[in-house]
Write a structure and sequence with these properties.
The protein is elongated. The protein has 122 residues and is an all-beta fold. The protein has strands at residues 12-27, 39-40, 45-50, 58-61, 67-73, 76-85, 95-104, 110-112, 116-121. It is 0% helix and 52% strand. Strands 1, 2, 5, 8 and 9 form a 5-stranded mixed β-sheet that branches. A 4-stranded antiparallel β-sheet has the order 4-3-6-7, with no helix packed on it.
């Protein structure tokens, strides 16, 4: 008789969470900062990849203050990303990706991400 250990993998089913904030900044050219202050990116899509998976496993929208949460996660590595308008002047314009990789180490941990800044082309 052999015993098979169940190795927990990143994903839903835990009590940990990832929280963060997305702010938007309007610019005419990405390399030239705007004189206007950044503001909360309301209703912006935020995507989450579990471990080494290829595509997004979950997504949420930010609230009216630009905040988001991915609750009920298990320990492991995760990739959080958002899309931003490309204001670098490339033709045709493409979306840029703002990415953060995080590790949840305990079953009840709340990982707080640094602010994710996206850009809006004026």
């Amino acid at each position: 008789m052999s015993l098979v250990a169940c190795e927990q993998v990143p994903g839903e089913g835990g009590r940990a969470s990832i929280v963060g904030h997305v702010q938007e900044e309007a610019r005419t050219v990405l390399t030239q900062p705007s004189s206007a202050a950044p503001y909360p990116a309301a209703d912006h899509n935020v995507f989450l990849i579990y471990g080494d998976n290829v595509g997004p496993d979950d997504n949420v929208e930010t609230n009216h203050e630009g905040d988001f949460v991915f609750p009920w996660l298990r320990p492991g590595e995760y990739t959080v990303y958002v899309y931003s308008e490309d204001t670098s002047g490339t033709v045709p314009p493409r979306d840029m990706v703002v990415v953060r990789t995080v590790t949840i180490e305990s079953h009840t941990e709340t990982v707080v991400l640094d602010t994710l800044t996206v850009y809006k082309d004026l």
